Amino acid sequence: MPINTQATAAQTSSAAGDLALLGLMQLVSPGLPIGAFAWSQGLESAFELGWVENEAGLQSWLEGVLEDGLSRCELPLLARLQSAWAAEDTALIAEWNSWLQATRETSELSNEDARLGAALVTLLRSLELLPDARLIPDEPGYITMFAWVAHHRNVPVRQTLLGFAWAWLENQLVVACKALPLGHTAAQRITEHMRSRLVTAVEAALQRDDQELGPILPGLALGSALHETQYSRLFRS
């Protein structure tokens, strides 16, 4: 019986795609033991200051952070870092890692990225998934190591960005459900609304030139700075 090589190749390709998808799902899972649940990325401060008080306000806040923050900073950086990992370009990995650290406008935001990055390194070491030590920059941030895992698991760049944006949205809504009188149904309404916004943000991120990069979030930066001395806190940022 002749072997259908085309069918076999298609099955192999499909299996590889499935493994990449599952690897991405594991990476963005709330159950990933890196402590992401402890950080609100400035959202708790927005609640405390009265800038976000209800479902409509939260949706508006998330839209602004996505458009003026993630689509201009984390998402395009993920694409660049994943390409740098693929090329094993040590200098470029270190350069973008340092650039990202320099964009963190408060100690809490900087600390969050550094601690999540360190936690992800620890997890990857236990899973024997770390890259060659010479490729890892000093004090690798969360975005840098996220990009490495996505590259290692052959996740397409666009899917990497969508997965990261989805994880960000889920974490923000978990924060809101804990710190704001927001029910889970309301959170799902926001999710339904934001799905198309995530796609648009990823498309914008993939089209940005280097000189266009950098967050434009003065309100979040101010709120984050005030959070450092906030009297009562549930989250570390």
Automatic annotation (TrEMBL):
UniProt keyword Cytoplasm present: yes
Pfam family, one: UreF
Transmembrane segments: none
Keywords, ordered alphabetically: Chaperone, Cytoplasm, Nickel insertion
Keyword Chaperone found: yes
InterPro entries: UreF (IPR002639), UreF_sf (IPR038277)
Localisation per UniProt entry: Cytoplasm
Superkingdom: Bacteria
Primary location group: cytoplasm
Subunit structure: UreD, UreF and UreG form a complex that acts as a GTP-hydrolysis-dependent molecular chaperone, activating the urease apoprotein by helping to assemble the nickel containing metallocenter of UreC. The UreE protein probably delivers the nickel.
PANTHER family tied to this protein: UREASE ACCESSORY PROTEIN F
Function, in words: Required for maturation of urease via the functional incorporation of the urease nickel metallocenter.
UniProt family annotation: Belongs to the UreF family.
Protein name, entry field: Urease accessory protein UreF
Organism: Alkalimarinus alittae
